[in-house]
Write a structure and sequence with these properties.
This protein is α+β, with helices and mostly antiparallel strands. The protein is built from 26 helices and 34 strands. The protein starts with a strand and ends with a helix. The structure holds arginine and zinc ion (ZN). One of its GO terms (biological process) is proteolysis.
Length: about 900
């Protein structure tokens, strides 16, 4: 039943030219005339097609213009088969196949295929949505030239598709049409079509070779004032890809449409990107600083796909990381070049470790290029995207940024217009740089799991030598018991304890070049490296910049060493990491203490003063980027602690009390300093750059969150929160104030939540923030609050993915104590929703179901209660393939 990577076979027929006519209506008529070229003698033409999601009905099938009787072809739940005998052409010859169907877009709640969102028609075809709108060879190695005629009543003024609009006009029956032609061959997953009544922002961009591109952003009526930021981002993306990677845009128009109902973030359809409105709409009153940055990243991401994904695409869906890992890497670099590189890097590492490491350690673990899948949508995963981007980043580290740019240019040149594999990408990098990446490729692309790397050092003062002994291993994952050693680029530096600064050294030989940072290539299970010219006993700074997606340990680093690195390392990732490691060690001991029955009190922990003085040093260091100070203040959370523990040993009560105790320790221990820092960051400084303002607000709101946890300062802090809410700089402050009171049962909380709702109740995206705060509250009333939200039909719609994410996923994935309530009420609530949503949108249901896959991490009663809910979901009638895959793998994996 699963699809297997090694069973790839090229298609028996290729669609060369596709001529589509789409009449948008309650029941839409779609006519698709295709020139199919035979590739294999004697093969039937097997077309993908699924009736169910959009009630697709076949009207007629014509071969070379002649009608084919219904009994001359076979149709089942997933395919239409036209027998070879009905297709009298030899290999290399073309035959015309025209299929007419009707679909009902309104009924398509899966949001996959052609559907309606807030009255507008739109499409989502990746990965396999086209088959919900038409019988077709729905696979990415089937690339065609599309001509698309869109027809609708004039109450639907905007009719869009891919490419250039070559003709438009009125029809005798009072309707109108637009004809689109896309000159670039593409797979059907990049096809898009939109019909609706929008507000439009237009602009233009002149490319490096002087071609003018018309830009358009289409949004639901009334949202025009929230589009300028997205347009600025789009123009920056065009420019950046020219400058950094020599990529020029290739058509005379580029459009973005924002819709309210969208399962994912956005989609890179050729010249017609479709976005979840959350990643387009922004103004100061309604969007936080983080929203603005996310929009920039995602606008960039979809635009960059024009080359990494569209001009060069994937041969099959197992190669998904070929375009996604690469494009995430490209959007990360875009955001880093335009904003603070250090804080972007730390945020990306946090995302990877909080969510991808969990995936790698659980029942859904898969290599970035998986070997098998049941529902491909389940593999639009953190592993394929985020770990995939780390693999690309390591290649850049190995071949250097200039070498990477050369390799990327060769890749695009060599494979333009083709559907290729991850191996093709690596080959281009090898050929452009004359390096051998075979070990790298054969480990990182094929093995799942997070490698563990441990380092021991020994210093020889006489010889001025430091020896590093590096060992690596990787835990078993489903289907992969044993792993080969990975090819790991380990970036290291040395910090001198007498100079408090970087030490220079030489790698390998005493006459090598002197450096202050080096990348060691770890390729064996155990390996030694010698650094020469090391003038004093150093503290090693390891895995600089998080140079590889591994778990690193160095047991000889003392807690004082960690504090030292947090204060003095020149690498901002290692500074951050050292503080986190210290906190994690203390938390681990607090969890152990709680397990032995002692009420966790962080104040009497012997290393509490060390942690506090380290944080104090960071807070007082005026030379630091405030965004980094704020990141240093965020302690490892409950879920990170659960992940770090041995399988089957995570006790929710012990973890929760330890984490709460640590937050209290910091709040009580540094209260006056937080108050002082809050005052210093409250107002904009003179000549402050926009980036500095973002960092300042981030730190301000971190301080506020600690201040409300300080018993002596709480009352004053609540006043500060109310004031900040009433006189905010922008939404960051208003939302920050609500977040600060989220977990406190007080009148200020009631008031701010009420005011927030009253102010923004007509703005869907802001109301989703209001949902999220309540779903993530640690107060015991949270499940009831979510039930009340579900009873507000004017703002909550369970068919809308954003609503589900803001309530159910926010709760299950971001409210540790609520989801894991010992009585099982959180589990039951979420499982009920999975069962309910499965009939509406399987992809949304399956994303929620992934939250149960960590059940084996916990002790009883949590593990048994999660397991019982998984069994209940598994027993649902007509469970979707998407959810079934997650649930079955969760139940089966050891
Ligand atoms: N290619 C899109 C992006 O990463 C994501 C589309 C995913 N769609 C899906 N149904 N899984 O930009
Ligand atoms: Zn993407």
């Amino acid at each position: 039943q699963p699809v297997l990577r090694l069973e790839y076979e090229p298609p028996a027929f290729l669609a060369k030219d596709v001529d589509l006519t789409v009449e948008l209506d309650d029941t839409s008529k779609i006519s698709c005339k295709v020139e199919y070229e035979r590739q294999r003698e004697g093969a039937d033409l097997v077309l993908n097609g699924e009736r169910k999601p959009a009630q697709m009905e076949i009207q007629s099938v014509l071969i070379n213009g002649e009608s084919l009787d219904a009994d001359a072809y076979q149709v089942d739940d997933e395919t239409m088969t036209i027998p070879s005998a009905a297709l009298p052409v030899k290999v290399g010859e073309k035959i015309s196949v025209q299929i007419d169907v009707t679909v009902v877009p309104e009924k398509n709640t899966s949001l996959n295929g052609l559907y309606k969102s807030s009255g507008n028609f739109c499409t989502q075809m990746e990965a396999e949505g086209f088959r919900n709108m038409m019988y077709f060879v729905d696979r990415p190695d089937n690339m065609s030239i599309y001509r698309t005629k869109v027809i609708a009543s004039k109450s639907v003024p905007h009719l869009l598709s891919n490419g250039n609009d070559v003709e438009r006009g009125d029809l005798p029956d009072g309707r109108h049409f637009v004809l689109w032609e896309d000159p670039w061959p593409k797979p059907c997953y990049l096809f898009a079509l939109v019909g609706g009544d929008f507000d439009v922002l237009t602009d233009s961009f002149t490319t490096c070779s002087g071609k003018e591109v018309r830009l358009g952003i289409f949004v639901e009526k009334g949202n025009l004032s929230k589009t300028p930021h997205a347009m600025d981002c789009l123009k920056r993306a065009f420019k950046w890809d020219e400058e950094r990677f020599d990529r020029e845009y290739d058509l005379s128009q580029f459009n973005i449409v924002a819709v309210s109902d969208f399962t994912m973030g956005a989609m890179e359809n050729k010249s017609l990107n479709i976005f979840n409105s959350k990643y387009v709409l922004a103004d100061n009153d309604t969007a936080t600083d983080t929203d603005f940055l996310n929009i920039e990243g995602i606008i960039g991401h979809e635009y960059f796909h024009n080359w990494s994904g569209n001009r060069v695409t994937c041969r099959d869906w197992f190669q998904l990381t070929l375009k996604e890992g690469l494009t995430v890497f490209r959007d990360q670099e875009f955001s880093s070049d335009l904003n603070s590189r250090a804080s972007k890097r730390i945020a990306d590492v946090q995302l990877l470790r909080d969510h991808q490491f969990k995936e790698d350690a659980g029942p859904m673990a898969h290599p970035i290029r998986p070997d098998a899948y049941e529902a491909i949508d389940n593999f639009y995963s953190l592993t394929v995207y985020e770990k995939g981007a780390e693999i690309i980043r390591m290649i850049q580290t190995i071949v250097t940024p200039e070498g990477f740019r050369k390799g990327l240019n060769l890749y695009f040149e060599r494979h333009d217009g083709q559907a290729v594999t991850c191996d093709d990408f690596v080959k281009a990098m090898e050929d452009a740089n004359e390096v051998d990446l075979s070990l790298f490729r054969d480990t990182w692309y094929t093995q799942a799991g997070t490698p563990e790397v441990s380092v021991k050092t020994s210093y020889n003062a006489e010889a001025a030598e430091l020896t590093l002994t590096v060992e690596q291993s990787c835990p078993a994952t489903p289907g992969q018991a044993e792993k080969e050693p990975f090819d790991i680029p380990l970036a290291v530096g040395l910090v001198g304890t007498s100079s408090n600064g970087p030490l220079r050294f030489k790698v390998g030989a005493a006459d090598a070049e002197e450096v202050d940072s080096a990348v060691l290539r770890v390729t064996k299970a155990k390996q030694e490296f010698t650094l020469h010219g090391v003038s004093e006993k150093p503290v090693p700074s390891l895995l600089r910049g998080f140079s590889a997606p591994v778990k690193l340990s160095c047991s000889e680093l003392t807690r004082r060493d960690l504090v030292f690195l947090a204060a003095h390392d020149t690498d901002s990732f290692v500074r951050y990491e050292s503080g986190q490691e210290l906190a994690k060690q203390i938390l681990t001991e607090l969890v152990e203490k709680a397990a032995s029955g002692v009420e966790a009190d962080a104040l009497d922990h012997e290393d509490a003063p060390l942690l506090l003085s380290s944080l104090e040093h960071t807070l007082r260091d005026a030379s630091l980027d405030r965004a980094l100070v704020s990141l240093a203040l965020a302690m490892p959370n409950e879920s990170a602690m659960a992940d770090a523990m041995e399988k089957g040993t995570a006790n929710v009560d012990h973890i929760s009390s330890a984490c709460a105790a640590l937050r209290r320790l910091i709040a009580e221990g540094l209260g006056p300093l937080f108050a002082e820092t809050y005052e210093a960051t409250r107002e904009p400084a003179k000549n402050e750059s926009p980036g500095d303002a973002v960092a300042r607000r981030q730190l301000k709101n971190s301080c506020l969150r600690y201040l409300v946890k300080n018993s002596a300062l709480r009352e004053d802090a609540l006043r500060k929160a109310v004031h900040q809410f009433e006189a905010p700089e922008n939404m960051t402050d208003r939302y920050g104030a609500v977040l600060a009171v989220r977990d406190i049962d007080c009148s200020e909380r009631t008031r701010l939540l009420q005011d927030f709702f009253d102010m923004y109740k007509s703005d869907k995206l802001v109301v989703q923030k209001w949902f999220r705060v309540q779903a993530q509250s640690a107060l015991p009333s949270t499940v009831d609050a979510m039930k009340s939200i579900m009873d507000m039909p004017e703002v909550f719609d369970i068919k809308n993915p954003n609503c589900c994410y803001a309530v159910f996923n926010a709760f299950a994935g971001g409210n540790f104590t609520g989801f894991h309530a010992a009585d099982g009420s959180g589990y039951t609530f979420v499982a009920d929703r999975i069962i309910q949503i499965d009939d509406i949108n399987p992809q949304v249901a399956s994303r929620l179901a992934k939250q149960f896959s960590s059940w084996r991490s916990f002790t009883a009663p949590w593990s048994t209660k999660m397991h019982a809910e998984l069994e209940r979901i598994a027993a649902k009638k007509d469970l979707s393939k998407d959810v079934a895959e997650i649930v079955h793998k969760s139940l089966e994996a050891p």
